[in-house]
Design a protein that fits this description.
The complex is a heterodimer of chains A (434) and B (301). With 434 residues, chain A is α/β, with parallel strands linked by helices. Chain A folds into 2 domains: 154 residues, 3-Layer(aba) Sandwich (D-Maltodextrin-Binding Protein, domain 2), CATH 3.40.190; 191 residues, D-Maltodextrin-Binding Protein, domain 2, CATH 3.40.190. Chain A has 18 helices and 13 strands. In chain A, helix 9 crosses helix 11, helix 12 packs across helix 13 and helix 17 runs antiparallel to helix 18. Chain B is built from 14 helices and no strands. The two termini of chain B are 18 Å apart. The chains are: A alpha/beta (434), B mainly alpha (301). Chains A and B meet through helix 4, helix 5 and helix 17 of A and helix 8 of B. Chain A: It comes from Nonomuraea polychroma. Chain A: This is Raffinose/stachyose/melibiose transport system substrate-binding protein.
Chain lengths: 434, 301
């Protein structure tokens, strides 16, 4: 190796030219940065710059509302950047850990993930929003998602539901007249779809978070419909995954696979492939969260072909419950220089018309509703459930960030036939106790 | 150079001054920068391995060796050590085998050898994450697409837990075989032609010339290649993270993905640092043993 270096000798002339080139390049970069700086401060007005880091799902509503806010408050400038969920968790946690948090950033409701409200608020990094008017109207059932020790730390525009996103045309072709309302009807619908030559359910289980959605869709009916206080009992150590309706939900999940209702190789299929299968009519439906409906619509040639229905996890239509979770929101950094301005922006987001706008952009059910609230037609069929037959997404009340990834992994193992339901539930119970 | 090496012993004192001190002075600025941006952060980070820090906030207390004890009882981390070793052995064996064959091929007097060297080396310069995305298409489980379509197979390359680890090894070998090739090639170029000519006159065939002339003289290249690919294999992260994220299940979880998840997904920064420390010591130990044994069999022309 060293011989190679010795042979690559430079003449003094070559060396000087090289150094000259570098100097010129450095000078050029310096010039360009200087120009940029002048451009930003050129407005003449003193501005407060609020930095926001969000997840990709928040881009559409945030861009719109940040622009509206700047119009009413020209002295404030919001610079936003977005990343996919897992990347946001990494980069944001690193910034929080290093003590240079952005003024505003994404926060996941409740507990159960590393960027969730409880975990960050416990570290003292979220500003208390309790004094803002909108916090008074948070529905009682949602309070655990927004509040820790009675103080509100996160703004979220409303809730989304998990159900089956389906392609109406494919259903029509298979001779299905109406969405199913019981588990046996659901299986019959899958059967008809299979006979018509499409995959009944597209499953992109290679993308970890997709693996959980079928269990989440079934557990409200198999667990919470029978015992609405299950979470409290589990927290008190009186209930477990293994000895509960979670076992039924897992068995139903695997029954769908056994009957050949999934696409081939779900573990080798991604969320994007799952989306395109339903949007292009290669599959009948996909169990998904309503917040990704815009993705399905973008991938479809006619967006109106797509709608949603609740997945019936019980054989009695009256004991079907649904998962309805508070959508990912944002919080203000408690320690930033601009904490007051950041809180003022959140107060603005809490106005009814802005809640409406945000909810509309992500097909969510608005946190509070007025005459001008509009609810996406695709989630209309969920509204009868939201009053007393809906439970938050399971992970929002799990005590640590480990249960959810374990759930992802055991589902992949079950789908691959490398594990049993007993082993899977045991692993989840172990992670819950950590 | 040769004159310096054979200097008489009585001039030792002066030599120490003239040959040892000035290089240290020249290296001092670089060493200072290195100490500031590499050594200091690395060593100060080690402290976290003995705490329960979550990665955010001020709450932190010293927990002694608790993190290391947890590691010993952590089924998932222990399983990932097995995966890490299997992956490393596969990568070291295949990458260097293929690298050597490629090097012998492009060392031959082929007309297109310059072009071939560029082609075989080109994957090395591609970002590992990009390689993972590219291979996700090649590893499409659909029987009519990608590698399956080409070979007429029905394999779920990244989705089947018993295949996924080897699929990862495959993409890593594809990327870095060219790197091993370049190092072997440098070794091959260093074999004096006279030795080959002498062997030929003695009646040695192609294989015998490789076995008794080329191979012993390639020893330094073998040492470097084995060491680099072992370290690379033990630390492998990007390709796994982008292709399978440790899944399906825990099939492709390695020490690197475990320490990443502990820090950024589970919020256990202290424990993660402990895993990282164990990984670093492990890599250092393996490399030292390897270099010690391989160096002993090196010969010079």
């Amino acid at each position: 190796m060293t011989d190679l270096l010795h042979e690559a000798r430079l003449s003094r002339g070559q060396f000087l030219r090289m150094v000259g080139g570098l100097a010129a390049a450095a000078a050029a970069t310096a010039c360009s940065t200087r120009q940029e700086t002048t451009a930003t401060t050129g407005g003449g007005q003193a501005t407060t710059e609020l930095k926001f880091i969000g997840v990709a799902d928040q881009k559409a509503p945030m861009d719109q509302l940040a622009a509206a806010y700047q119009k009413s408050k020209p002295a404030v400038r919001i610079t936003a950047s977005y990343a996919p969920t897992d990347q946001v968790q990494t980069s944001l946690r690193t910034q929080l850990g290093a003590g240079n948090a952005p003024d505003l950033h994404v926060v996941y409701p409740g507990n159960g993930s590393a960027m969730s409200m409880t975990q960050i608020a416990q570290a003292g990094l979220l500003a208390d929003l309790s004094a803002q008017a909108w916090t008074q109207t948070i529905p009682a059932g949602f309070k655990p998602a927004f509040q820790l020790d009675g103080k509100t730390y996160i703004f979220s525009a409303g809730s989304s539901v998990i159900g089956a996103v389906y392609n109406k045309k494919v259903f029509e072709k298979a001779g299905i007249e109406a969405p199913p309302t019981t588990w046996s009807e659901f299986l019959a619908v899958c059967d008809k779809l299979k006979k018509s030559g499409v995959a009944p359910i597209a499953l992109g289980a290679q993308t970890p978070w997709v693996t959980q959605l079928i269990t989440y869709a079934l557990v409200p009916s198999t667990v919470y419909a029978k015992d609405p206080t299950f979470d409290d009992k589990q927290l008190a150590g009186q209930a477990s995954f293994a000895d509960s309706g979670w076992r039924d939900a897992m068995e139903m999940y695997l029954e769908l696979q056994k009957r050949g209702f999934f696409n081939d190789n779900p573990n080798g299929t991604t969320f994007e492939q799952q989306t395109s299968m339903v949007a292009t009519g290669k599959a009948g439906m996909a169990v998904q969260v309503s917040a990704v409906l815009p993705d399905f619509r973008k991938a479809a040639s006619s967006p109106d072909d797509l709608s949603m229905f609740p997945v019936p996890g019980a054989d009695d239509a009256n004991s079907v419950w649904i998962p309805a979770g508070v959508v990912v929101g944002l919080g203000a950094s408690a320690k930033g220089k601009n904490a007051e301005e950041a809180k003022a922006f959140i107060d603005f987001l809490g106005k009814q018309e802005n809640i409406n706008a945000w909810a509309k952009a992500i097909a969510a059910i608005p946190l509070t509703q007025d005459a001008s609230s509009s609810i996406d037609p695709a989630v209309q069929s969920f509204l009868p459930f939201t009053k007393d037959r809906a439970v938050p997404f399971m992970d929002q009340r799990w005590p640590n960030a480990e249960v959810q990834p374990v759930h992802f992994a055991v589902i992949q193992e079950l789908l691959a036939g490398k594990s049993t339901i007993d082993e899977a539930l045991k692993k989840m119970d172990e992670a819950y106790k950590k | 150079m040769t004159a310096g090496r054979s200097r008489p012993a009585h001039r030792g004192a002066r030599r120490r001054f003239s040959a040892a001190s000035p290089p240290w002075l020249f290296a001092a600025p670089a060493l200072a920068v290195y100490a500031l941006v590499v050594l200091y952060p690395a060593i100060s980070g080690v402290v976290y391995a003995f705490t329960d820090w979550s990665g955010i906030g001020q709450d932190m207390s010293f927990v002694g060796l608790a993190n290391f004890r947890t590691l010993l009882g952590d089924e998932q981390a222990m399983g990932s050590i097995g995966n890490t070793l299997l992956l490393t052995v596969a990568i070291v064996a295949v990458q260097n085998g293929v690298g050597l064959l490629l090097a012998l091929g492009v060392h031959a007097r082929l007309k297109s050898r310059a072009l071939l060297r560029v082609i075989f080396f080109s994957p090395v310069v591609v970002s590992p994450v990009m390689v993972a995305f590219l291979w996700k298409y090649i590893y499409n489980p659909d029987p009519s697409a990608g590698l399956n379509g080409l070979l007429g197979l029905h394999v779920d390359w990244l989705g089947d837990p018993s295949v996924a680890l080897w699929s990862i090894a495959g993409m890593v070998v594809w990327q870095y075989a060219g790197y091993s090739m370049v190092i072997f090639l440098a070794g091959l170029e260093g074999v004096p032609r006279e030795l080959h000519e002498a062997a030929m006159i003695d009646g040695a065939g192609t294989f015998q010339r490789f076995r008794y002339v080329t191979w012993p003289l390639l020893a330094p290249a073998v040492t470097i290649n084995l060491m680099l690919s072992t370290i690379g294999g033990l630390k492998l992260f990007d390709q796994i993270f982008a292709a399978t994220n440790g899944g399906p299940g825990y099939a492709t979880e390695t020490l690197s993905t475990v320490l990443y998840k502990q820090a950024f997904v589970f919020g256990k920064f202290g424990y993660s640092t402990a895993v990282a420390l164990v990984l670093a010591l492990f890599v250092a130990a393996v490399s030292l043993v390897q270099v010690y044994y391989l160096r002993r069999r090196e010969v010079t022309a």
